[in-house]
């Protein structure tokens, strides 16, 4: 069967089971767009290429499938870079197809030419320039394989226009193996045995879960392990949802804006079981005082994560799911132990910390408290919504005051911290989950970074809800300026915000303004039941801070509390 | 500490840039880097010398292994290995100096590969110590040009 490059691309996407792609056309990809109507793939036209990658990323995070986007050469390609780096830092499987000028023009500074493979080399898991149509099908197969296996990540495929127009015989490889790429899924049994023995001797064990638990679908087994062996659980921002936020063993998030209980537990635990996490600086604080009393077991599929920031006692390079399964077997083999009784006093200590210093805030007198808004969203949705966030204070309050019950219900840019991520990611999640309530928790600063995607949401009737915690500031930077820079609020005050209600209406969406605490719940309920995208502009306490807070570079125990 | 890494890579466009970018992006050091084809078509061997603390070297090796185009990474430092580097150097050699320079050539078992009325070009092969020694010796005559390949190395067959 002879097909053009464009047909090969779409045929291959179909074989990969891709149903939705996010993109924006241009000269270099017209041939591909010309074929889209002939294939069972739905294309979502975004309004900016960054939005396309974030949408594909939100689609991937909320489903576990590979997200796909398609953009043109030059500026279309460069606009994807922030989205790609976002996905890379958080290990999200996304495949990005970029158009490229025809091969004879490459290197000649042709119109809309850019070396996107060169530009994205450090922020993709791998990338390709397809110069020969004979390698196209195999390259697409490799791209999906690499993006979705091992530690997942974004893969970019650059497609010159002439390659899309040329014809060749098509055959799609059934399976693929690469001699230079063999992620290790199976744990070393000896290491697991050692870990199990260490856990069995522990008096104050603690599970520290990261995004790897979610991407390897290990949430269920991790929760079972925690309950069977009576081990309290904390998680990173990326790990929220891996363990039910309403479980008595749950201590909350750890790190810079982690709970008192979680940070104290890290500080006092004697065995720290890190699963699918990478000891990021926002988690550890000052590295040499992190978990000072603990022996550390570190499970991660990526060997580079191990001993990158913190030296560990038992490294286990493996898929989290397989490692935890093996761990359970080894713990069982140790015979009957009354784990509940063994860890009873430790559990009492950790829950004591939780009740001593729970997440709290002072009641608002004049203004609505942002934390209150999150608590109410949790109550109204019963924790069953998909929450995406922008970046900054809104993100931290969403991490603290909404309780995530299940994996893939929080979409947030953890590693790169990309403002403007939440809304397009919510669009991607809504495409994948048409019947779910998808809410973007935003700040008045962040939402302006990708607000153009409201046109996308409207075009495809995607009823995403944007809750703007509007404090008139770039709040997180303002908080740092208040605490560490003598309140020099340079360039963080947003004097001339648009009228967000009118802005929503201008797109044909619904807009609500909330200025009184008693209006929060009725307006949220109304907006959440609307079939349209909505902006709910909630005027919150302008100088509210996120607490607890560990100042950058300080130890986890040096928390500033409310 | 100095480490010599033997890195087998897929010989495809951009692979050198992937390796160089990894080192610069993560703040690792490259002291020398040599690349050449192997007997297997489509596969090249890079020999990278670098230095750093043990934890850094461990990261370098792991990060290299993570690059999809890299097939195999071996740290030769803890193994018995042979290391060589070749240098071409052009040294001032008027009639008065030539005899002395040729004596050095003899002692170091290097080769004269080009000669003119006032210059000699030498080919020197050896490990880093030998090359440093001959440079020290010839410096007083004036070394006019200097080109070196960077270290290449192979694991010894007998690991005693």
Describe this structure in words.
The complex is a heterodimer of chains A (562) and B (160). Chain A has 562 residues and is of the alpha/beta class. Chain A folds into three domains: 2-169, Rossmann fold; 189-356, 3-Layer(aba) Sandwich (Rossmann fold); 370-539, 3-Layer(aba) Sandwich (Rossmann fold). Chain A contains 23 helices and 20 strands. In chain A, the strands form four sheets. In chain A, strands 3-2-4-5-7-6 form a six-stranded parallel β-sheet, with helices on both faces. A six-stranded parallel β-sheet of chain A has the order 11-10-9-12-13-14, with helices on both faces. The model of chain A has no long low-confidence stretch (mean pLDDT 97). Chain B is of the alpha+beta class and 160 residues long. Chain B has two domains: 2-78, ACT domain (Alpha-Beta Plaits), CATH 3.30.70.260; 82-155, Alpha-Beta Plaits (2-Layer Sandwich), CATH 3.30.70.1150. Chain B contains four helices and nine strands. Chain B has helices at residues 15-25, 54-66, 95-107, 128-138; strands at 2-10, 32-37, 43-51, 70-75, 81-92, 111-115, 119-126, 143-148, 152-155. The longest helix of chain B is centred in the middle third of the chain and has 13 residues, at 54-66. Classes of the chains: A alpha/beta (562), B alpha+beta (160). Chains A and B meet through loops of A and helix 1 and helix 2 of B.
